[in-house]
Amino acid sequence: QVQLVESGGASVQSGGSLRLSCETSGNRYTKHCMGWFRQTPGKEREGVASLDVDGTTTYADSVKGRFAISQEPDGSTLYLQMNNLQPEDTAMYYCAGARLDRCGLSDGPYPHWGQGTQVTVPS
Predict the structure, then answer these.
(1) What is the rounded distance in angstroms from the CA atom of residue 43 to the CA atom of residue 40?
(2) Per-residue pLDDT for 23 more than 60?
(3) Can you spell out the DSSP letters for 54-123?
(4) Is the dihedral angle over the CA atoms 110, 23, 66, 121 positive or is it negative?
(5) What is the pLDDT of residues 63-118, one digit of tens each?
């Protein structure tokens, strides 16, 4: 049973940086592709970044060049480094995992989800 717990969300000024973490368990011996998603009230969940088993990364156009997804070599923790944050980045951020080689930015393939961590960038 895969369990995901996010942390690191906060309120940060425009132009600032944050690093989100997602502690994972239950997947140490089975490779999972992983992803970060975000959602604001009244809007659909948006894929932000994904990391395939072979190390391929995919980013939403809105975060390219500002966000970076990475993972500890043992798969224990997933990260999302967020730089030059803007008010439109304000959202609840979720990590997700799937026992697949490739996942992408659509939420359909992901059966495992964390509870979310709030990121706020005041305008």
Answers:
(1) 6
(2) yes
(3) TS-EEE-TTTTTTEEEEE-TTSSEEEEEE-S--GGG-EEEEEEEESSS---S-STT--EE---EEEB---
(4) positive
(5) 999 999 999 988 889 999 999 999 999 999 999 999 999 999 999 999 999 999 99
